[in-house]
Amino acid sequence: MKDGRLRASDLRQQKWREEKRALIALDLQMNHSADFPTTDKGNYAQAKLAKLRAKMLADDPYLMQRPYVERRDTLVNSELFEAFKEMPKPAIHHSHVTAASSVEFLIKLTYYHIVYYSETDNLFFVSKNGCTKPGYVECIKLR
Predict the structure, then answer these.
(1) Which of 6, 75, 100, 139 is the most exposed place for a label (fewest CB within 10 A)?
(2) What is the pTM (predicted TM-score) of this model?
(3) Do 52 and 45 touch, CB atoms closer than 8 A?
C-alpha cells in the first residue's frame, strides 16, 4: 500500500468484514425473542451470566477462538457452567446422536430391542415401552 492502493488480501479482508457486519445485522433483525416480556428475575439472571462470561473472556481473551477440545476443562470448570447447571430448563433438551456419537456406537445401538428406525423419516426412535409410530420398525427385525 505504498501508493495508497489496497492489496488484494486487504480488499478480501475488508469485504469479509462488511459481509460479517451485514450478517450480524440480519441476525439481530431475526431475533425471535426480542418482543418477549422480561421479568426482574430474568434480567438479574441475564446480567449475572453476562458478568460471568465477561470474567472468563477477561481471564482468557482467546477462549472463543480456540478449539473446544483445548478449552473444554476451562469451560466445564467455570462459574458460568456451574450457573447453567443450576438454572431451570424451560425446554426439552436433546442431542443429535449422529453428531455426538461414533459410528461404532450407533451400530451397536441397532442390536437392542428398544431401538426402532423409520426409512421414511430416516430417523431412529428409542423407547423401552415399544414403538407405535407409523413406519418405525425394530432395528433387529431390519437385519
Answers:
(1) 100
(2) 0.42
(3) no
